[in-house]
Design a protein that fits this description.
elongated
């Protein structure tokens, strides 16, 4: 059995692979999520839904993230845009 934390970590890896590799969502699910989570259908379903929902709401999440980054001001640590890995965390948090 996988913990929700482990599943979220795997979803973050899938989001990174999707963003950097420019593969289809189905390919990322088949190569990143399914091989590790295939033994538990409910966990795989949760991970797949979280992954797809995050992708589908990414434009809205990016707007929210950009608004908050602007509020931090020019001296903020994250400059114009958070790093790709951190961006995935923030997108999941927006979902």
């Amino acid at each position: 059995m996988h913990s929700r934390r482990e599943v979220r970590e795997r979803v973050l890896q899938a989001l990174y692979a999707y963003e950097v590799g420019h593969d289809t969502a189905e390919h990322v699910i088949d190569t990143v999520l399914r091989p590790v989570l295939k033994d538990d259908r409910e966990v795989l379903r949760f991970a797949t839904q979280l992954f797809l929902r995050t992708i589908n709401l990414s434009e809205e999440a990016d707007r929210l993230i950009a608004d908050h980054v602007k509020k931090l001001g020019p001296d903020a640590h994250c400059a114009d845009r958070p790093a790709a890995a951190a961006h995935g965390h923030l997108r999941i948090a927006c979902v």
